[in-house]
Design brief:
Layout lengths: L2 H14 L1 E6 L2 E6 L2 E5 L22 H15 L19 H10 L5 E6 L3 E5 L2 H8 L4 E4 L4 H9 L3 E2 L9 H10 L5 E6 L3 H10 L4 E5 L7 H10 L2 E3 L4 H10 L2 E3 L5 E3 L2 H13 L25
Parallel strand pairs: 4-8, 8-9, 9-10
Antiparallel strand pairs: 1-2, 1-6, 2-3, 4-5, 5-7, 10-12, 11-12
Helix pairs in contact: 3-4, 3-10, 7-8, 8-9
Length: 300
């Protein structure tokens, strides 16, 4: 093999080990266990990110890079060493925490989520939901790792596309239904409102959760999310908060809230409240409730 061919082959190998995630308003590329690219953040402050084990405060490229590197070291994110189960809750109203509670209460049979190293997965146990989702950022692109896929399967999960680790929530719902799971919840990236609409049309009974909505920068798109989703996370989206004023019936949290758009979403939030030992206040009022000192800054 000549030097040129050898270089091309090595470049191809590097490209095969590529993950893209969104974290704290940045988009980052992880290759071979290292952060190789990171964009400038679109926000300067996030009340959620500042509480990470490796805090991001203020939101700057170096701080986000350190946080991602910490996650790579601590639980193998975007590597073959990825741990996929966990017991601890990270926040009160996170998507994985709400799904964990719903699974424990048998309100849902399965959750369709995504995992680095495996793509779209179907999970039926709280430990797997929390281990995969509780420490994840917005996953944009990933590659399959047989080791990670086997850990998920050994823990009772189902990997929808073992060959390419594609991110396809509708395919996940279809597979869950095919296997007899009736009460299914699914997370969809907020920027992919068309997929959310397609899932709702095909599966009217599914619980739809819009996550990672910072890139929702159009009020009409946010309205479309509320029209089909049961829960919509606000992240740093100004448009989601504006649409919530028209459509939300319950708000969980203040700084980075989740909004229920109907009864099914409301029940998931109330179940979570019933499970926690934390004190809380219940009061009827106009939504959204925004504490400007605790929201992401700036809203985009």
């Amino acid at each position: 093999m000549d030097e040129k061919c050898g270089n091309e082959q090595r470049t191809g190998e590097r490209k095969k080990d590529r993950h893209v995630i969104e974290a704290a308003g940045c988009r980052a590329v992880i290759e071979n266990g290292s952060v190789t690219e990171i964009t400038d953040p679109c926000i300067s402050y996030c009340p959620f990110a500042k509480r990470f084990a490796s805090p991001i405060n203020p939101v700057e490229k170096d701080a986000v890079k350190r946080n991602i590197e910490h996650r790579i070291r601590s639980f193998g994110m975007c590597t073959r060493e990825r741990r996929v189960t966990a017991d601890e809750s990270m926040v009160l109203f996170g998507a994985s925490e709400l799904l964990t509670t719903a699974l424990r209460n048998k309100s849902i049979d399965a959750a369709v989520i995504c995992c680095d190293g495996a793509g779209t997965v179907i999970v039926q146990t709280p430990e797997l939901v929390q281990g995969i989702g509780g420490r994840m950022s917005g996953l944009v692109e990933t590659v399959p790792y047989p080791e990670v896929i086997e850990r998920i399967k050994s823990s009772g999960g189902i990997v929808v596309d073992e060959a390419s680790a594609s991110l396809n929530p509708e395919a996940g719902v279809t597979e869950a239904k095919r296997r007899g799971m009736e009460k299914v919840a699914v997370t969809v990236a907020g920027s992919d409102v068309t997929t959310a609409e397609e899932i709702r049309k095909a599966y009217p009974d599914v619980i739809l959760i819009a996550v990672h909505t910072t890139q929702v920068k159009n009020t009409e798109e946010a309205r479309r999310l509320f029209s089909v989703c049961d829960l919509v996370f606000a992240c740093a989206s100004k448009s989601v908060r504006e649409a919530a004023a028209e459509s939300a019936c319950v708000q969980g949290g203040v700084g980075v809230p989740v909004f229920a758009a109907g009864k099914r979403g409301k029940m998931l939030i109330l179940e979570r409240l019933a499970e926690t030992n934390e004190p809380f206040l219940v009061k009827n009022m106009k939504l959204p409730v925004c504490d400007m000192g605790k929201q992401p800054e700036p809203l985009v």
